[in-house]
## 1
Amino acid sequence: MQEKGDAMHHVVIIGGGYGGLKALGVLAGKKGIRVTLVDRHPYHFLQTEGYDLIAGKIPFDSTIISLRSLCAGFGDNIEYLHAVAEDIDFKSKKVLFEEGEPLSYDYLVIAAGAVTRFFENIEGLRNYSYGVKSLRGALKLKEFFEQELYKRLESATHAKECYSILIGGAGLSGVEIAAEMQAYFNRYYRSNALACGSLRIHLVSGSETVLKGMHPSVIRAVTKRLNELGVILHRGSHIIKVQERLAILENGSKIPFDFMIFTGGIMAAPFIKGLKAEHNRLGQLVVNSFLQIPGYDEVFVVGDAADLKDRKGRRLPPTAQTAEQSGVDAAENILALIDKREMKVSDIKIRGLAIALGGRFAIIDTGKIRISGLPAYIGKKVIEKLYKLPLRFKAKEGFKRLSICANRSG
Ligand SMILES: Cc1cc2nc3c(=O)[nH]c(=O)nc-3n(C[C@H](O)[C@H](O)[C@H](O)COP(=O)(O)OP(=O)(O)OC[C@H]3O[C@@H](n4cnc5c(N)ncnc54)[C@H](O)[C@@H]3O)c2cc1C
């Protein structure tokens, strides 16, 4: 095993999400390379399973993987640094932090993801709605929602009150959360046989359909399922104003709510905005076809933080699958630079969609094959397991290594 030292190439990865961890997986164990994974949180949040957490199907620890243990599991030359990146000095090749010493790199992967975009022109949106891209946001919603159900269970006065959750934005995450929560409500309502007021989910889409841009037959199938569950769809009108417990749409309709979630847009993680490089209108960093920042060959950007395009120059949606593929491509290009080989043009493909639609129902669409219902639900769970089981296994190994070291030094 090679010792840590000056002769080694130091790769810094900012962000232990889907893109960052795929890059780490490619680089780990490679001779002559040491990696520092930096993340503001000590865990990898499985955002794609957020809908299950919110609907109380899985405990919160099922949606996280410890980054410290994971890095220990990847081997000696991988380190985890719990820190918030604040800026990057591209000229002197240093990452600067909110607190602590700057960190020098030979190669850098920026994989800091995105956050919910609370549009400034929608008055009140930021004050009265919540995002679900973070573990904190997802837990907040889950807690609020369980408390409300509990109040209705305990108190005769509350029991007959109507309770509604408004979801602004009918993209993938909005649709999944709406379906899952409505299914939860329906199950709860039936199992408690309560004289309970209605529990409804309102899903607002600014476009004429949900899942704008997807294949019409997928849109039809998803809309049918949402209708069967009882989700109230509001289409073709944007939210223009939000007040405490009331959303106002462009067409004049007013929707009262008890809790509002906004999933209508994302923007690159805040620190990315301040970097001295080219950005698109979402604040994502513009990259070349090798995923490098033009002018800085040693800096790569992946996942939601990057303005990713396919080989035909079409913009790619911010998804876990694009983040993962870009993470692999960037890491392989770093290895090519180190070995003085030619880099490969990134070739990210959308391999299909798996949409959870409440209970044990999902739709999987690969463009050629579509399945729905229980088989698709099982398929989605298999996809999720195939992603997380190897990570859990590594984290477990890492945890053992860390415990042995702690016992020795103790
Ligand atoms: C509810 C929901 C459901 C979804 N479902 C699907 C789905 O079914 N399929 C799919 O493909 N996609 C889905 N997505 C989208 C998918 O989760 C994202 O596209 C994916 O997480 C992007 O990966 P990433 O690596 O770019 O960023 P992330 O996974 O967001 O990771 C970014 C990391 O960077 C860290 N970070 C940020 N700023 C800093 C900083 N300044 N310093 C240090 N660390 C920092 C963060 O803590 C985080 O760990 C869903 C998203 C949501 C919210």
## 2
Amino acid sequence: MSLFSSLKNIRGLRLTENVPLANMTTFRIGGPCRLICEPESPEAAIELFRILPELNVPYALLGNGSNTLVSDKGFDGIVIRPVSGGAAERLFGSRIRAGAGMLVPSLACFARDQGLAGLAFAQGIPGSVGGGLTMNCGAYGANIADVCESVVCVRPGGEVHTFAGSECGFGYRESIFRHEQLYILEATFVLTEGDSSAIAEDMRTYAAKRSASQPLHMPSAGSVFKRPEGYFAGKLIEDAGLKGYRIGGAEVSEKHAGFIVNAGGATAADVIALIRHIQQTVYDRFGVWLEREVCILGDVENV
Ligand SMILES: Cc1cc2nc3c(=O)[nH]c(=O)nc-3n(C[C@H](O)[C@H](O)[C@H](O)COP(=O)(O)OP(=O)(O)OC[C@H]3O[C@@H](n4cnc5c(N)ncnc54)[C@H](O)[C@@H]3O)c2cc1C
């Protein structure tokens, strides 16, 4: 039985074969996958994960693809990602529940409209709630972990488990979700009462800072490297003379050296070669090894 036929009866599961993953990442890079599965609801995702082990096929998780570099060969298996969008729900007190597919900026806007403070920092982070929690996304001194009360996940086999925020192993761009076979279904955030117009003002300030300092008009995956202890990756790369350095279509952004942009027709191989070049050059100049933040989907050589 084909993969498609095995899954086509799951209600609320969108299936598309041979999808070019480039279209599903902000880098706009990457080959196809055999099948993309997009659960429209937690129930559809749970049913998919229940039968996943029987399919005996490799699978990978994706959110909004804003921190992911996909191999040029793509991925010979299933890519699972929640249908993008969805609504958040205000819960008792100052809490909000959101599905994994909701975009982080939409969640920040929902919180603002509810007069709830604590997510203004996230207005310009172009990820999904699932990807944001996995990466513990953050900006301007705040991280999503700071406001995460609990996360509901499903494992292969279909077991659903709720993790308290303190059980998620959150660290700097880290969580257990990066390392364990857990698909995030939804999460609850605990915020503080605030004033919508003051929150909106904070969001405008952050948006202005971003557009002044980041190459938002070009395809990228945001900061490629983690911030090394005591340094800023972008500053090290700039001081190493690498701003504007290019391999194929991949270029160190002129605007923010911590970003690699797809300046036109970049391949994953170009990006990987540029990452290696940056790591080696910065190490030779400053003795600091830059650790990659961007996730890899598919088969690429180690970086
Ligand atoms: C212009 C730009 C600006 C950015 N600015 C910031 C910033 O200020 N701060 C910051 O932290 N990041 C920033 N990023 C990076 C990125 O937006 C964040 O890391 C974001 O949280 C990634 O979310 P995503 O849904 O796109 O994840 P993806 O890239 O799709 O996936 C990232 C990881 O999460 C996993 N994952 C995704 N969904 C799920 C799920 N439902 N269950 C389990 N695992 C899942 C994937 O398997 C992968 O390992 C920026 C990126 C861009 C392009």
